[in-house]
Amino acid sequence: NMLINTPNTNDSGVELTGSIQQEDPQLIRGRESVYRKHPSRARSLFQDSLGSVTIADVAEENIKLENVPEEGADGGELEDDNQPGLLEILLNGFIAITQLIAQSSYIGTNIIMMAWSITYHSWLTFVLLLWAMFMWMLPNQRKTMLRTSPFLVLYAEFLLLAQYLYGMNFTDEELPQQIQGLNLRQIGFEKYLQLPVKPLLIKTLYTLMFWITLRQHNQERWEARNSSTIADMVAPLQIGVGAATTAMGGESQTKTNQFVQKTGLVVRGFLTKYWIWVVASILFAIGISGQRMTVFRIIYMALALVFILTFQLSWVVWRKIMYSFWLTVIIYSMLILIMMYTYQFDNFPEYWVKLGIPAALQLDIGLEKFDTTELFVRLLTPTFFVVITVIQLYYFHKDFLAISDIKSRGTSSVRPSDRPSEG
Which residues are listed as membrane-spanning (predicted)? Predict the structure, then answer.
């Protein structure tokens, strides 16, 4: 039963109040609001003669929510109409996956920066390589990458404009590639006589990932400002920002998000258990592969043997040294990549000779010049290994230690019979 009382108006203004009575108040009284600790107070509106509206506290009102049956329609049919369809669930799932990719675009941006640098070898792309390596080593990589994304996009656009200019049919007098002995090709200004649109297209595709990261950065900034505005608007009404923003979401979106979250947890749990063994296998493969043995490969093999022997001898020690071990592997791989990358530039073999390292010893170390086709393959191996090792260290290492902790038998997902014994 509902009773609405309208008081008399006077010259000072018009009072708009309402009191609702109900037989069973257990629907709302059974829960306590998380937004106030004191007894809740309802709100009433007061409008004066000038039209201004103010909000005042009145006695608490309990509202019983009941389903209103649809006239001329069956309740079951109405529920069926509200159920999400298969196409809607698939669409919401696609949107959720797209949002997940956008939120994780900083990882793809780092990988694309390294791929760009080894695809087109030059001093300008070497900046991208150093930039990516610096980002990999930061503890808060995502935040830093999002903040630097505007500068990254500007730098990529500069490279695109330079490539567009050097893709035109200009003569060497109009657009030279050497100025007073300076090789502009190694700087990054190279002419492509055959299919000049190919490098421009590839670099444009690389830049798209940078734009996605920049868009994610701008979107998060807009959402932060928007959430602050909503919080200021709903504060007098005692409504949470989450309730105000998620009330518009449908049932199908909730179910889809739950499915995506469960799938993500399953995939993450699988990768946490087995990604470390993928990295260890590739580490061992790098140490034994190749036509000739070099110092670089010998050190890789030594690191692989340290990993295997420590695992066999002491499980506790192996777990304790894992963080330092992976960090050492990452730094060593980055140093190899930098030395191999810079060795391909002009006059660098002579610089090594001036440091007291003859040409024969440079070859034994693993420093040698490659042609354009073979250079990409040679640089791809350390680049790929740096990426997968960084992923292991920063994204799966803590979870792996948690599930492999012998002392946490009750909380660990690894059974005692599956754990190796300490030795």
Answer: 120-138, 150-166, 274-292, 298-318, 325-343, 375-396
Give yes or no for a contact between 92 and 256, defined as CB atoms under 8 angstroms apart: yes
SS3 281: helix
Number of residues that this document lists for the chain: 423
Question: CB–CB of 291/125 below 8 Å?
Answer: no
Mean pLDDT, residues 73-90 taken together: 60
Kindly report the number of other CB atoms within 10 A of residue 170's CB atom: 12
**DSSP tag of 163:** H
Cα–Cα distance, 125 to 344 (Å, whole number): 13
Give the residue with greater pLDDT, 215 vs 83: 215
Structure-block tokens of residue 280: 């260890």
Rg for the chain (alpha carbons), in Å? 32
| Contacts for 252 with CB less than 8 Å, ≥ 6 apart | 84, 85, 88, 89, 92
- Nearest alpha carbon to residue 236 among 54, 23, 74, 407: 54
Longest dimension (CA), the chain: 104
Lowest mean pLDDT among 231-235, 236-240, 393-397: 236-240
**pTM of this prediction exceeds 0.90:** no
What whole-number distance in Å separates Cα of residue 329 and Cα of residue 207?
Answer: 29
Rounded to 10 degrees, the C-alpha dihedral 202/206/212/213 comes to -170
Phi, psi of 194 (to 5 degrees): -110, 125
Lowest mean pLDDT among 4-8, 224-228, 264-268, 400-404: 4-8
26 pLDDT more than 60: no
Find the angle CA(289)-CA(294)-CA(297) to the nearest 5 degrees: 50
Kindly report, residue by residue over 29-54, the tens digit of the pLDDT: 444 444 444 444 555 555 555 555 55
Distance, in Å, from the CA atom of 53 to the CA atom of 16, rounded to the nearest integer, reads: 10
